[in-house]
Amino acid sequence: MLDESLPSADRFKVPALQVSGVDKTYKASNGSVEALRGINLTVAQGEFVCLLGASGCGKSSLLRILAGFEQSTAGHIETYGLPVTGPGPDRGMVFQDYGLFPWLTVRDNIGFGPQHAGRSRRETAAIADRFAEMVGLSGFVNRFPGQLSGGMKQRVAIARVLANNGRILLMDEPFGALDALTRAKLQEELLTIWRETRLTVVFVTHSVEEAIFLADRVVVMSAGPGRIASDIRIDLPRPRDVSSVEFNALRREITNGLSSHLAPQRQDAAMVNA
Which of 40, 113, 115, 150 has its CA 20 to 30 A from that of 125? Predict the structure, then answer.
């Protein structure tokens, strides 16, 4: 929680997330694998940040550390000025595979957190129905996940974070398995929810177009080990036109940057295999 002893203006200057000198090394049977090195990142309250990079650059590892699911090897992370020591209701994670309970209805999936926080059955149902309506699922609250499309499952996952009173939404390639039309629709709906709730969003993707379309900032990561290669503010007005000259100029700039990060890795791999 924010320090309520601070004046209101100062409270809102506290970053939603502060990542300082974070390293991550995994132990493997054939030695250690350095996944992240020297990550420094500040995310302001209400900001939408995309982590962009090729597979293996540590995007998902960083997101799991932000969620508290994993501990960093070095460095530290703060949320609203307090150290992250594990998972918390202030940070909600949305995965590509949805992570829903298949034996619970939409209403019960959304209300799972409030129910286990001690809310009454009536309060829980009211909270669940409120957020089901926000994500456009009012007519589906009695359905089970197996009766929903992929896009609808993702809406349930987002509503579940909102129902937990989460202020930070962490999304790990949530639209990666969806068809292009559903993906575009959910991108628009996510931006609508973000504008209405002023959540802080950290969104992992490997799509340059998706990152530019969604984000206030695009943080480009390079691999071997994962590091922040560039941090690009996206100043294009919303709604963004993916066919505009400005949008495509940014896409070329970021794509060229990604290609330059990958080139040394391909060269190193060729030398190893020679």
Answer: 150
Contact status, residue 110 vs residue 160, Cβ threshold 8 Å: yes
DSSP codes joined into one string, 139-168: GGTT--GGGS-HHHHHHHHHHHHHHTT-SE
Reference 169, options 155, 183, 188, 152; nearest CA is 155
Q: Are 13 and 3 in contact (CB under 8 A)?
A: no
**CA–CA dist 110, 106 (Å, integer):** 6
Pairing of strands 91-94, 48-52: unpaired
Q: Which of 261, 173, 172, 270 lies closest to 224, judged by CA?
A: 261
Q: How far apart are CA 171 and CA 152, in angstroms?
A: 16
Report whether pLDDT(172) > 50.
yes
Largest CA distance in the chain: 67
DSSP classification of residue 236? P
| Rounded Cα distance, 219 and 229, in Å | 8
- pLDDT tier, 161 (very low <50, low <70, confident <90, very high otherwise): confident
Q: DSSP alpha helices (H): ranges in the chain?
A: 8-11, 59-67, 106-110, 112-116, 121-134, 150-163, 180-197, 208-214, 245-273
Beta bridge partners of 200: 168
Bigger pLDDT: 164 vs 62: 62
User: How far is residue 167 CA from its own chain's centroid?
Assistant: 12
- Alpha-carbon distance of 186 to 84, in angstroms, equals 30
